[in-house]
Amino acid sequence: MNATRQSRLAWYARRLARMSAAELAWRARDVIVQTAWSTRQAQAELPAADESASRAQRQFATRIPARVASLVPPAARAAVLAAARRLLAGEWEVLGVTRTDMIAPDWFLDPVTGRRAPAERYAFRINHRSEELTGNVKQIWEIARLQHLTLLATAWFLSHDEAFAKRVSEHLRSWWAENPFLSGVNWTSGIEIGIRLISMTWIRRLLDDWPGVVSLFEDNDLALRQIRNHQQYLATFRSRGSSANNHVIAEAAGQLVASCAFPWFAESLAWRKKSARLLERELARNTFACGINRELASDYHCFVAELGLLAAVESAAAGFPLSPATWQRLCAMVDSGAALVDERLRPPRQGDGDEGRALLLDPPVANRWPSLLAVGNELFGPLDWWPETAPDVASSILGAMPLATRHVVVRPARRPWRFPDAGTTLLRTAGGRDPEIWCRCDGGPHGYLSIAAHAHADALSVEIRYGGVDILADPGTYCYHGEPAWRSYFRSTIAHNTVEVGGRSQSEEGGPFLWLAHANASEVNAVDIGDAVEWTAEHDGYLSLRWPARHRRCVRLDRASRSIDIVDEISGDHDVRLSFHFGPEVEVELDRGFAILRWPNASIPGAAMFELAQPLRWSMHRGETDPIVGWYSCGLGRRTPAVTVIGEGRSHSARPLVTRLEFLDVRPMAKRQDADSVLSGSPPGAPAREMPDIQAEAG
User: What average pLDDT score do residues 86-90 get?
Assistant: First the structure.
């Protein structure tokens, strides 16, 4: 037995161990059905006459009010048209890779590895996790979500330029023809099928005034088969048990959206009712009462909120509104999102992220949260403490859809800074005259469900920003499939701003989306007294060591002095490594127990003194690969070198590790002498020892 096969079998054994008996039974049932369905692969049969509505009854359910196109802000309209024209020329960025073949794309080609995934093999016999077989499957799935076509359809809706609609028609017909039912890698995952149904729904809606839309959809046998087959798949197979995370939300949302918009089939009523119940139940399970997603992965918070809102809007517009409790939960997701973002509307970078979108009506951007808040603004109305957001195409259209009353009665009167059920606490200054200091503290569960698929080993980690610039940064995700060493590093404890004890991560990794042991944190105290705010928490991830250890951390933001103190207590005598990761814009110089920080080229320049915990031995790393350390990922498929400092030594119960970060005023001519004094460690007015001229460079 070769090593690859042994490794694969070991992974399956670990994965099975994380499943309940009920989940094992359901998965056994799925295997039986999948085997039986192999006879249906690529069959081109039409629904029988009694299974599909007649042509006269095939009416698309809900249309966009005619006035909406004129309500879209000119800047948002121009951005869509510019992106759509680039797409017409064949250019499209997919997870960090600029593709130039999008005039007639190969639906199975991975441009990263050059491999072509199976197109004709029975879907349930394809191991999409094998990069050797499929290449980077995320690259293939991303264009198969057909979201580039929703952008082109939006361009048609705004301009009525025939070229946009024709390209949509060409690509849709091509995808439908080359991806018959259950053939190829694009039928291997329910989340992809759910998102694709949402895309097809909105393509039909946006092209409603195009003369060719009926022949593309209602009068197209191929379209009818694909829409029905997608829904049959989701009605038969869904994510369950330890996999019932954002995947099941996408599956339920896609089924609900499609069954409301295309109520053409004998099963449509049953599909709608079943998917609505599933969505409501799983949204409640996947979301803390405070509104934060239970996966504790910020990117998926936005993704799940988008999915839920789209499904709720679709269902309400079709005359079947979801329950008041579900609308209340969706509003809490948006309100918590408004509270989490920094002054530049950037969310936390906690946990995994793959830039997943539920629907693309505006050009793709790295930060989708402003659009989510703009949609929330239209659906629920902003609160007094909400940050300002600019309307875009998505918010203009969704806000104009015919909806019933949203039954939202409970909303926070003030901006929350603590989310105790999620273990998330934000220490921040008020902003205004001075750049905002924003600090996220992680004191909650490891992740969601037994495998915690999208969690990182980051208990008690902090993120710190100055005016929205990453100072102490969460490293991000970089990759999912392939490159296992990089996947492990970006999820590890040493890759986060926290303490590693005994040479291992707090949580035990069992595979790229599998954790075998979870470090769970709990908040001990959090208090805001005005001039200062303080948070304390601890976690249990090192209690399994031969000589158990508990890590407790206290973080204090002094608003008056614009400084942050981090105090780490490790019970017992252990080998420890304390790591701090700086954003890519931060320049770092180590000097006798201090790290001198500058970010002169950032949108808001600044400087700080970082007093490092003693008696640890500190070293600086940047862009290293043996071992991997000193990296920052702005998105899936992208990484850039960034500075990391690591302190190594022994812990002592009676000697906490104390670190202090003090931000300096670097505005021209402002407090220059005092800043020099801070850098030198001398009192204001005393002669400063020779140090790098941070103010001159940063100002």
Answer: 97
d(CA 358, CA 302): 9
The one-letter amino acid code at 414 reads R
Residue 655 contacts residue 688 (beta carbons within 8 Å): no
Eight-state DSSP code of residue 323: P
d(CA 177, CA 174): 5
Burial group, residue 97, by CB count within 10 angstroms (0-12, 13-18, 19+)? middle
Q: Which two tokens stand for residue 98?
A: 């600029």
The pLDDT value given to residue 53:
60
Write the pLDDT tens digit of every residue in 376-407: 999 999 999 999 999 999 999 999 998 765 67
Residues whose CB falls within 8 Å of the CB of residue 323, separated by 6 or more in sequence, listed in order: 280
Question: Residue 433 burial (CB < 10 Å; 0-12/13-18/19+)?
Answer: exposed
**Other C-beta atoms lying within 10 Å of the C-beta of residue 338:** 23
Give the amino acid at 570.
I
Q: State the average pLDDT for the chain.
A: 91
452, 446 contact by CB (below 8 A) = yes
Q: Which residues contact 523 (CB under 8 A, 6 or more apart)?
A: 420, 423, 425, 443, 444, 535, 536, 537
Q: At residue 688, does pLDDT exceed 70? A: no
Nearest 10 degrees: Cα torsion 80, 75, 201, 316: 170
Q: Where are the beta strands (DSSP E) in 320-387?
A: none
- Considering only CA atoms, which of 342, 285, 628, 337 is closest in space to residue 471? 342
Q: Where are the alpha helices (DSSP H) in 455-521?
A: 484-491
Domains recognised in the chain with CATH numbers? 69-237 (no CATH), 243-416 (no CATH), 419-689 (2.70.98.70)
Measured CA to CA in angstroms, residue 315 lies from 201, 311, 405 at distances of 13, 6, 13
Buried b (16+ CB within 10 A) or exposed e, 584-600: bbbbbeeeeebbbbbbb
